[in-house]
Batch of 3 targets.
Target 1
Amino acid sequence: MERLDLFDCSDVFIASFVTDDRECLHENREHTLLYLCSGELEIEERGKKTFVHPGDCAFMRRDNRLWLQKKAAAGKPYHSVVLKFTRAFLRDFYQRLDRQKIPFDSKREKVSLRLLSNNRPDIRSLFESIIPLFDAAERPSEEVLRRKMVEGIYVLLNTDRSLYASLFDFVEPWKIDILNFLNENYMLDLSLSEIARYTGRSLATFKRDFAKVSDLTPQKWIIRRRLEAAHELITSGSRKISEICFDVGFKNLSHFSKLYKETYGMAPSR
């Protein structure tokens, strides 16, 4: 029998216990720092698998879809502690930073999942101090929770300068580039509202910013990018047409074939 307990304190952090295997699609709406206490965790993103073991700490960038498989192991349940950094929290934290110490030349990395070194005292100290809070009879105070969240941010900032650009991507010069985001995610079934939110904009601002970088509408740009990706794969001749169609984001094979022929003057075939 599976048991799952979630302890959610003001969207600050969550601990979960699973006695049987559990698999789910996780849409990461916020930057997340996960520490695995026991059990095993398998994370899959676009066919690439990453295995997280007890004592490991993983940073998952927001606005990504990941498959998570949580497993009991070695006679122990799956037990993790997760810190979620909301945009509101990060904006408040950013306002308190010393501007002279911010590395504005840091570049936002493309990877959405990063395993942190498992022998760092700051990581071990942070999470070992969090775990007992769940066993306490009373709910931790907001001030205690905030201090733990701040510690978590400094764990990340002390890991790599590029994480400044990832964590604070709502301000210049790190604001998420629209075309970079779409080039990385054109195959996903995202609404314009979701794309706007994922790039840190309102829908109106997204449409205005997109018009500055393309003469096409966002929908037509995505269709063109999917067709280009499909054409490259078809030319290489290594995949079935139906697989290519769905992998690049189309939902209907006949619709894909029609658009492909209109664009390239021939039906898609190897």
Note: The radius of gyration is 21 Å.
Target 2
Amino acid sequence: MFRVAIYTRVSTDDQAEEGYSLDAQVERLEAYCEAQSWEVAARYVDDGYTGRSTRRPGYQQMMQERDNWDAILVMKMDRIHRNSKNFMIMMENLEKWGKEFTSMQEELDTSSAMGRFVVDIIQRIAQLESEQIGERTYSGMAQKAETGGMLGFFPPFGYRIRNNDMVIVDEEATVVRELFSRYCDGESMAALAESLNERGLKTRRDRQWTLYSIRHILHNPAYAGYRRWDGILVKSKHPSIIDVQTFNAAQLAAAERTRDPRYRNAKVLSA
């Protein structure tokens, strides 16, 4: 059976929008594999990493474990790379290793010369668009991040936007505090997701909780009153749901328990 490595990515905690959240990507890609009668050999996730760099733990691990799969499958080409040079290096390596690349949304694969040519053109267009957007927005966004201003994103579970400010949603905030408390007390992310689902609680998008959605919350510094954008981590003006000590305790607990190399170095905050 054709073995596929599913790769999913969001660039920051702020960009998990409808259709591009990690859960949504995994769900759609698994359904696609089932329709194609492909075996999902492995799943690799990069949560909070830019596509302009290859320094992504999930991406690196996927390449190291290439003997375990026959092709990489992504939902959209910009999930794997936003830099055409890096993309072409990856394609050269895949060809050398006898591996293939498939993007579900563009319905393209690299098993033919025409497919590889079209993929290259689309990737270069994606890089151009990315660079043009970056040139127009980077300066203003960086300044907002450094000053704690709002960046115009979909607020995480526990918050909503009111008058361009993030405010706490009390019912959701209670769930967030419970998750941090129970995780620090020793419960696993999978057990927390199962517990919330058994109680009939839903995510912001009215979906069941998964390990990914729990991890998304437990590693999000926004709950401790911080913001992260393109490597900039600053104290924000929005109200915190938990204190810095609780957030740091969760990061240390995750680093101690995980087998995933992406989370072995705890990213703690300065009190």
Note: Helices lie at 22-36, 57-64, 84-97, 113-147, 170-184, 189-198, 211-218, 244-257.
Target 3
Amino acid sequence: MKKNYAASPTLCISIAKQSGIFGTIIHNAGYEALKLNFIYKAFSVNDLESAINGVKSLGIRGCSVSMPYKQKVIQYLDKLHPLAEKAKAVNTIVNDNGTLIGYNTDIVGVTECLKQFKNNKEQQILIMGAGGMARAILVALENLKFTNIKLTNRTRKKGEKLLAEFNFEFLSWSEKEKFKPNMLINATSIGMNPHSSKIPISKNVIKDSKIIVDVITNPPESKLIKLAKKNKKTTITGLDLAFYQALGQFKLYTGRNPPIKKMQKAINKFYK
């Protein structure tokens, strides 16, 4: 007598130095809403090359890539989507029958969150950081036609190297304290757990800014965002950015339009 075994679920994962739970909540909520035989798991990874080899050899359908691997991962992939090539950073991998293709849905997430401010394209914007997320932000801002952008980074050489690919200005890490941007964007890891008591810039600059953006998702509300809210600033959190980029990932992994309301409800329920 034949036994009727259910098909194994399609596996999607996230990899990071320190894994979070956001992806598992939002993706699994979407799979459940559409009754898809998919499952999403999060992993903390120290050996990136072995992890990516595992994605290919185990037939893992999709892989989300977080700090600090978004640039380093490129060397292990077979192809890059044009947006990922432009950003020189990958946050999403799709395993297409053994071919690993790198995408950048961070750009989509940033664009969705910042397009509401494009009526003032000449406003002063300061980006802190020069990693993969900073690259995605620069591409998104450039595509949205913002023109008055400065970038600062703790390592000057890395910041200037990044800006050589864009027509924007570098500001030294010390000079940022004298700057008064309209929009302040933290694309560093400063303030991330287990160092959540830290902020990347002085409280005076926060008070002088009108819009505060922080890419950090762990904790869900960074100290920078808390201070911004206390000072009645417009804020965009790492969870806001992550939500919109995850919608792009969902479609790439499943080929289906994401059930946005169901996914948003799951996030709201967990983080309320």
Note: The radius of gyration is 19 Å.
